Amino acid sequence: MDRTTKLYKAIQERILILDGAMGSLIQTYKLEEEDYRGERFKNHHMPIKGNNDILSITQPQLIKEIHTKYLEAGSDIIETNTFNATTISQADYDMQAAVWDINYQSAKIAREAADAYTLKTPEKPRFVCGSIGPLNKALSLSPDVNNPGYRAASFDEVKAAYLEQVEALIRGGADLLMIETVFDTLNAKAALLAIDEIFDKMGKKLPVMVSGTITDASGRTLSGQTLQAFIDSVSHMDILSIGLNCSLGAKELEPYVTELSEKAPFYISTHPNAGLPNQFGEYDQTPEQMSALISKWLEAGKVNILGGCCGTTPEHIAALAKAAEKYHTHQKVKPPEITHLSGLESLQMRSDTNFINIGERCNVAGSRKFLRLIKEKKYEEAVDIARHQVENGAQIVDVNMDDAMLDAKEEMVTFLNMLMSDPDVSRVPIMVDSSKFEVIEAGLKCLQGKSVVNSISLKEGEEIFLQQATTLKRYGAAVVVMAFDEKGQADSLERRKEICSRAYKLLTEKVNFPPQDIIFDPNVLAIATGIEEHNNYAVDFIDTCRWIKKNLPHAHISGGISNLSFSFRGNNVVREAIHSVFLYYAIKEGLDMGIVNPAMLQVYDEIPKELLGYVEDVVFNKRPDATDRLVDYAETIKNITQKRVKLSKLLGERVIWRNA
């Protein structure tokens, strides 16, 4: 039985004990500069005292001794001494060149210690966990208050740093990996992507733990995410566990561990601090006090992996190990079959969820004002447009920079970084919208939440479609799939069914893409154009919605609603009525979301009866002269100003529509 199998067996049988703090014990050795330097770094050009990770090279026996103390205390899992062992973090000491050796040697030392104890007690194997820290640079936060769009590092730089660390840890003998003390989920997503790529490169896969940190009583990470949004953002990986560590003690962490155990479809880990620090930055909570607090969690069955963070010692771990022997391990909750999206906050798409409005005004192709602001580099004013959409009820913000006069990739990155610095906008998920896949991928590298991509299609064939879908899955994004294939755009019911069913089968069977993260756009096409072949477009779209909901389980449906009324541009009263009638019936048949201008909607029941009759004739293609009749009628109401209503009222109406 290999070690991974043994680990999964053990975690199902009992609560596993993780070790405690490394730094706390290193401090007890009172090391000086020359101890850190050793022979290898004797002539290094700058001080390195405090760089604990380097001790795996210069003081390997000391690190092994600490591991041994934790193993003696009852730890099943010991962490490598690599919390800051990336090129980015080691740059503080100008020791980037030593990063591979630090990680490799750290894993090797821990491996030797764990194997020695496994030999003593083969019935209780010990495991080595590669510790992957959060870095000293955040991808979601600007270090410059005067430049909110600035980032101290790029996603690719962070991923490259993690790539080196992860491979060295695995080659040194790690059994599992833990991305810990996550304060910025985008950093963690870069680490997860790096891990996935190394697994592919090495042809092996290890269990992965993800452990975040809640910074205060708000229950959010430092980068602003709620706990549910954090879960949503990392759930695309097949991880062993999700958990919390650092920042808080056991008492303060308890409600958040409870929330994780109730919501997350993974095993649950936690390694809190030994209480909160005193005025001198020291931790006073005794092993007995910590154990008493955590025993309440254990009795309630909330935890699978338990350890300690800042201020904890082998004595703390021994007390926790003794307490854990009395209780059963946590039973994982069932994975949700509903769609979870997130920005700083979570957006869940259930069968009883309101129609989801996707704000359309941050699209350079659809808003002249937005295009002008981007061209003029007036990003703060452009962010205002996004904020106004959210204030008016948009639950997702669509961002598109595809214009011949713009560098779409550069503008997407610049604008999204600005957008993520605005708490009012960044709380909602973002739809990264582009016809260029490189722009889509660049956009995803700016977003810590679970986003939506608009869009991919079978236009260029199956191979490219599957490549793109695989990449998006690695980023954890949901995807809009256009009803478009090698033959062209679907413009009939049968063509829509043909393309959507083919795409669904490819995504679910060849990519293992979660079906709840598939959103079909069956093409909202213009009606009332004067071309007879266009007259049934709305009917076919609505019929397609019904068919998708019946035949493609858990998939969602979206559309660009304003396309429908394009032939009536300039007459907003008629356009609003067409949109509202179409949505009224399409939502009943399963339309979940749409790219909509909230200012161009009416409440169905408030549409004047005469106008409603003309519009329904056109939408449902009831009579050959329906378009001519609506055109004639539209001339009589051109200058009428329609009463506006808040989108919240419209959405309230639509709950009734869907459940009717």
Automatic annotation (TrEMBL):
Domain of life, source organism: Bacteria
EC number: 2.1.1.13
One Gene Ontology cellular component annotation held by this UniProt entry: cytosol
Extent of the signal sequence: none
Residues that bind Zn(2+): 246, 309-310
One term of GO molecular function: metal ion binding
Metal-binding among keywords: yes
InterPro entries: Dihydropteroate_synth-like_sf, HCY_dom, HCY_dom_sf, Met_Synthase/Corrinoid, Pterin-binding_dom
Membrane spanning residue stretches: none
Cofactor(s) this protein cannot do without: methylcob(III)alamin; Zn(2+)
Residue stretches making up the Pterin-binding domain: 355-616
GO biological process terms, semicolon-separated: homocysteine metabolic process; methylation; tetrahydrofolate metabolic process
Domain Hcy-binding positions: 4-324
Gene3D superfamilies: Dihydropteroate synthase-like, Homocysteine-binding-like domain
Task performed by this protein: Catalyzes the transfer of a methyl group from methyl-cobalamin to homocysteine, yielding enzyme-bound cob(I)alamin and methionine. Subsequently, remethylates the cofactor using methyltetrahydrofolate.
Family, per entry: Belongs to the vitamin-B12 dependent methionine synthase family.
Identification of the protein by name: Methionine synthase
Organism: Saccharicrinis fermentans DSM 9555 = JCM 21142
